Amino acid sequence: MSARLLRRSAGRALTRARGWKARHLPRGMNIAGPVIQLYIHDALRTTTFSFVNFPSLYAPRGAQSYRYTVECRGSDGAKFGRQTLTVPAFGAVEAEITQLFGTELPPWGTVHVSLRPTSFFTRHDQHLGRLTPHFYALYHEPEMGFLALVHPQTEAWAGGGPLEEWRSTLLIDTELAEFVEAFQINPTARSVTSELRVYDEDGVVLTSASTVLPAFGVRRERWVVKDLGAGRWVSLGADRLAAPNAKPLVFATNRAGLISGSHS
């Protein structure tokens, strides 16, 4: 048998094995690893997370409760705390970051969220395949004067391999923004050196900042828009990200002090 046929045969066998796993293994053995997201709790903002029991919505006949385990890490990647929340069938749990980990936590860092059924051996939701934790982060002023809702960023990655240059398609209007902040996470267990860049509308680099992101750490960069010497629009980029889809979260503050945020 030729090498090509052997590879095809091996590929088909792997696909069949994955299909068998999805159909027969207990739910507790068919769930993805933790999903990582930024939290902020500084003088201006805090973060509220919403955790939904989404498997019960798609498998209502055998609906059961699920547990979200939430681990908090500071900007240096060091573990700060861990909480487990039980979300009932068809239910949801909303929690502000200080409700989970107190008021003395670092001003920014990450949460690592894992998902598990309360019954390890359930198979009522096997048709859903491999499940990944899903939740949303709401960054807001305590009085809700401004807010930004952002989906989860990325799964934890093993790391390794070359990382490509990245350029955001998000355009920031310099006539409205006074300050621009970028929070970049490292969702891997290894340190990564990354240079963040601010581009003008013609693709010229206006300024840049390079730093070493520790394992599971976070960096923050802040620019005064008027000091950039830009035209109408600016955008962000990097020589490399710490992992695929680990794009920075960007917050723009306007002249009235209102903050908008988005996944860049």
Question: Could you please describe the fold and organization of this structure?
Answer:
By secondary structure, the protein is mainly beta. The chain contains 3 helices and 18 strands. A 5-stranded antiparallel β-sheet has the order 4-3-6-1-9. Strands 10, 11, 13, 14 and 16 form a 5-stranded antiparallel β-sheet that branches. Strand 13 and strand 14 form a beta hairpin. The longest helix has 22 residues. 31% of the residues are buried. The mean pLDDT is 89.
What is the string of helix and strand elements?
Answer: HEEHEEEHEEEEEEEEEEEEE
Strand content is 35-45%
Shape verdict: globular
Radius of gyration: 21 Å
Please tally the helical runs, counting DSSP H or I stretches of 4 or more residues. 3
State the separation between the terminal residues, measured CA to CA.
48 Å
Report mean pLDDT, rounded to a whole number: 89
What topology does this entry show?
Layout lengths: L2 H22 L10 E6 L5 E7 L1 H5 L7 E9 L4 E9 L4 E5 H5 L6 E10 L17 E6 L6 E4 L3 E2 L10 E2 L4 E2 L3 E9 L6 E9 L4 E9 L4 E7 L8 E6 L10 E6 L4 E5 L1
Antiparallel strand pairs: 1-6, 1-9, 2-5, 2-7, 3-4, 3-6, 7-8, 10-16, 11-16, 12-15, 12-17, 13-14, 13-16, 17-18
